[in-house]
Amino acid sequence: MTRMEPLLSVRNLDVAFDTATGPVRAVRGLSFDVGRGEIVALVGESGSGKSNAVLGVLDLVRAPGRRTCDSILFDGQELVGMPARQMRRIRGGRIGMIFQDPMTALNPLIPVGRQLIDLARDHLGLDRAAARTRALSILARVGITAPEERMKSYPHQMSGGIRQRVMIAMALICEPDLLIADEPTTALDVTIQAQIIELVKELQAEFGLSIIWITHDLGVVATLADRVIVMYGGREIETGSADDVFNRTGHPYTQALLDSMPRIDAPEEAELRALPSGRLTSDDSGGCAFSERCPRVFDRCRVEAPPFATLAPAHQARCWLPVDTLASEDVPGASQ
Amino acid sequence: MTTQTQDSLIEVRDLEVHFNVGSGTLGSGNARRLRAVDGVTFDILRGETLGLVGESGCGKSTVGRALLRLTDPTAGRVLFDGQDMGRLGRTALRKMRRHMQMVYQDPYASLNPRMTIGDIVGEPLTVHGIAKGAERERRVADLLELVGLDASAMTRYPHEFSGGQRQRVGIARALAVEPDFFVLDESISALDVSIQAQIINLLKRLQRERELTYLFISHDMAVVRHMSDRVAVMYLGAIVELADSRRIYEAPRHPYTKALLKAVPVPRVEGGKKATIEGIKGELSSPLEKATGCRFRSRCPLAEARCHTEVPLLRAVEKGHLTACHLA
Question: What percentage of chain A has pLDDT greater than the value 70?
């Protein structure tokens, strides 16, 4: 891809929740870019801050949560400080969203056809007939058979896979530049997940979309991502191309995730290399959040948070002692 | 069909579990039968893990529940250690249940939030009259240690523990009555990847040390491969393939098993190219209708005339490798 200005550029994003025992920082100083036409996977386990990060970008963090951010440039426009009304036009218009549970995004009381038509009229200013034509064509495009019939259905009358397709249609009807997908296939069976992922890849190529795809599943990452951001404790701890992150893994946490997964493509191992449990190291210690669980931990990790170390151009890991490139040549699958 | 009766802890014969759905409100005559489990036959050998995989709604959880008689079968038999569960009276059934335990999916919903960990793990000891007082306490401490928790956990409450630790509590509780058999129904599916591996390793260690027999129910093909000695694949209430784990993953015979494996995303990037996966096209047949042909025919790329009219029976295509496909 040619070097050009990224579609989305986030600088120093923080999301914190006020609790009885003080603020909990869900996202800590996150900065990242999404290039035009690029699929970026935001990977992490529960509590890593990956969902709050995109809620922060979309300004959808609700009280008692708070977002603070230096800058979010979207196609040259500053989103931080943008009036709520204008922000609403961007969400659902130029930025489409799909979630794990379509039932939270679809109105259960309104047939899906009308929801699609309303969206197209609101955001694109189409008249009813034009909006309807557009709704039909997008439903057909996401692989829904008999879209005329389907327009009349209510969300509860559809299977999980069909509902997810309808939500993708809702997200794409305004031809957004950016699609944000938060674990949209996690609740689906693998055979349906595979259909949805292949559909998204086709649509991405066709519309030249940029995508942020949030997931905990490294298998899904390998099928989709151009670039990967691994999150832990609210921070990005490794970022690089999918090739770098999978094949020249830098951060011990990423390596541990890869090692601890049972897989269908590798010789069987008697025992999985499990990561020990452990709490996030508290901010007060000043150390690396992963230090309590890290197999490579040494004194410095416990007192001083590591900055990004550049392992290769556009491949960085927040670690004092990144996984040795030579040692990681015996990648999972090739190991004995 | 099977000749392994002497090694079988559990024998399931022509098991059917049907549910009435659409109750026919006000006599509208809409009552229909959902064929959740529609005639399955298999054995679970002593000391093995039998994996049971399939997509949501295929009936795998219902099989697990019927084995423990948490659901009454509509037809068929389940023999535990040679005894027909269906013929046991209430008292005998309760005694029998000591030998079989279930570990559930959600470690948040399956532990009573108002009970201490000590009481949760100790309750089965009281219920089955195994131990009380100081003896009970000693046993609970042992059980907690066995699953990798500190005995000091006894006085604490579930909310003080993480998902992985709660699942350890659930396993300790199931172990309390010294059972022979566990039904593990999606027992690690709700856990984070890094924690899943710990629990998998724990379950495998306990199986070795205590000679446990497992039915491991999951939708996750990779986890099932890692856990199981043999694997049964279910589709719409029926077993379509059953074989050694290695054969299922390396030389599957049923088109459905093959399709399932092709849909699993693998965490591997080769030559800088994204991995590809394939979905299954076509619509699922209705579980409300009695099968008149192969249940998978509506989605099968190979289906021919015979598949529409003749139900394929589970038959051996090789020793110990069963499949229900006319074309396999």
Answer: 93
Chain B residue whose CA is closest to A279: B162
A207-242 pLDDT, tens digit per residue, is 899 999 999 999 999 999 999 999 999 999 999 999
Average pLDDT over residues A137-161: 90
B177 reaches A (C-beta below 8 A): no
What is the pLDDT at residue A283?
63
Q: Check pLDDT > 60 for residue A332.
A: no
- Among partner residues A258, A264, A273, which is closest to B221 by beta-carbon distance? A264
Residues 49-88 of A with CB under 8 A from B: none
CB contact under 8 A, B267 and A260: no
What is the rounded distance in angstroms from the CA atom of residue B250 to the CA atom of residue B239? Answer: 19
Residues of chain B with pLDDT under 70: 1-6, 22-31
A154 contact partners, CB below 8 Å, separation of at least 6 = A108, A109, A110, A111, A112
Tokens of B162: 């993480």
Q: Tell me which of A50, A191, A279 to substitute to probe the interface with B (most B C-beta atoms closer than 10 Å).
A: A191
The pLDDT value recorded for residue B11 is: 97
Residue ranges in A278-321 assigned as alpha helix (H): 299-303
Here the ipTM equals 0.87
Which tokens belong to A225?
A: 């991502």
Q: Which two tokens stand for residue A120?
A: 């197209």
Q: Please answer yes or no on whether A261 and B222 come within 8 Å at the CB atom.
A: yes
Domains of chain A from N-terminus onward: 1-94+174-247 (3.40.50.300), 110-172 (no CATH), 248-336 (no CATH)
Inter-chain touch A262–B264, beta carbons under 8 Å? no
Question: What tens digit of pLDDT does each residue of B19-59 get?
Answer: 987 655 555 556 688 899 999 999 999 999 999 999 988 99
Contacting B residues, span 247-266, partner chain A, CB-CB under 8 Å? 249, 259-266
Best CA proximity match to B17, nearest among B69, B79, B89, B53? B69
For CA atoms A89, A95, A100, A102, give the dihedral sign.
positive
Closest chain A residue to the Cα of B56, Cα to Cα: A189
**Which tokens belong to A74?**
């979207």
Residue B201 touches partner A, C-beta closer than 8 Å:
yes
**Residues A276-302, mean pLDDT to the nearest whole number:** 83
The predicted structure's pLDDT at residue A21: 83
pLDDT of B307 reads: 96
Q: Which of B193, B221, B227 sits opposite A45 (nearest CB)?
A: B193
Chain B residue with CA closest to A254: the answer is B194
User: Per-residue pLDDT averaged across A308-336, rounded?
Assistant: 72
Of residues B47, B42, B40, the one with CA closest to residue B2: B42
Identity of the residue in B269, B278, B280 whose CB atom sits nearest the CB atom of A242: B269
- The minimal CB distance from A191 to the residues B263, B272, B274 is found for B263
Phi, psi of B297 (to 5 degrees): -60, -30
